[in-house]
Amino acid sequence: MNFEDLQQAWQQDAKNAPLPEVNEALVRSVQANSRKFTRSIFWRDLREVAASFFVAFIFGRIAWAAQAEGTPAWPAWVAAALPLGVAAFFLTDRWVSARRHAPQGDDVLAEIDRAIDAVKHQISLLRNVFWWYILPIGLSVGFLALQIVLYMPTELPPHIALAVKVGLGLLVVVPAWAFDWWVWKINQKAIRVNLAPELAELETRRQEITGEA
Length: 213
Description:
Elements: H1 3-16, H2 24-68, H3 74-100, H4 108-127, H5 129-151, H6 158-210
């Protein structure tokens, strides 16, 4: 038997070696935390989808009313469509994640691997939250402000009407974009304070169980 045969035999023995005995309390703790994390993500996604549909409904009503009065309403329709895109992203992401990730089970190592994948996915989502959440919502508010500035009917003199429209547009945009900035900050904080430590703990537990360095 040459060196390569010995190496392959050793690797096969290591692969087939039984895992160290796992504390039953650790198994229950991992499973409970994993299920709690999954439930929290589910309810967060449900709230965000409901909020997106609500915002789309309000902006759609504004567009419908403007169009019924004979006023061009394309900015308001765009403003209504963008939150629907955010809702579609949430629903698609849940569908893809459900197909990609292993279901929860009684095997603690498989459960830890499933939990690690789920946490890593959430970290990736929050790091890129600007592109799939903040930007579409910010643009939606911007298009609503454009609807106000360009097409809101008024009987005021032209120069006064423009100033009023711009002021109303800023009253819509500035608080909304400040809120978007706050959303970005709390999501990055969630990575540092919650998700990154959770991921480190899961990986440490996995190493303790498998004996891997």
